[in-house]
Amino acid sequence: MTKSPRADRWLTAQETADRLRVKRKTLYNWASAWEVEHRGPEPHRMGSRALRYRESDVDQYIDSQPRAA
User: Fold this and answer.
1) 3-state secondary structure of 38
2) Sheet containing 50-54, strands listed edge to edge, beginning at the edge strand earlier in sequence
3) How far apart are CA 4 and CA 6, in angstroms?
4) DSSP E strand stretches across 1-69
């Protein structure tokens, strides 16, 4: 089994917020409504409190956003 050149890793909410240039609270708001609205990259709960994001999901979300002219 070969690994992809960029192995998927888990990003914290703060790391994800920094990459997306949004506040961490915004991510938590998106995560709480994700099942209905699908805003932002897909969140994953690790335990009862920790929120994590797959790096590949974050990159895919960034790539899907329209570019400013």
Assistant:
1) coil
2) 10-12, 50-54, 43-46
3) 5
4) 10-12, 43-46, 50-54
